[in-house]
Amino acid sequence: MRRRVIVALLAVTSLAIPSLAAARGVTVTSKHTTGGFAAVSSCGSLAGIGVAWLSTANAVTSVTLSSIPAGCVGGILSITLASSSNTSLGSVAATSVTATSQTLSVSGSPTATSVAKVFVAVSGP
Amino acid sequence: MSRHASHKSIRAGLPSLGRFALPAVTGLVVFGAVTAFAASLSVSSKSLGAGNATVSSCNASAAVTYNTAYSSTVPGYKVSTAPVTTAAACNGLAYKVTLTGAGNASLAEVSGTLDASGNASPDFSTNNISAATVTGVSVTITG
Question: Where would a tag sit more exposed on chain B, N or C end, judged by fewer CB atoms within 10 A?
Answer without folding.
Answer: N
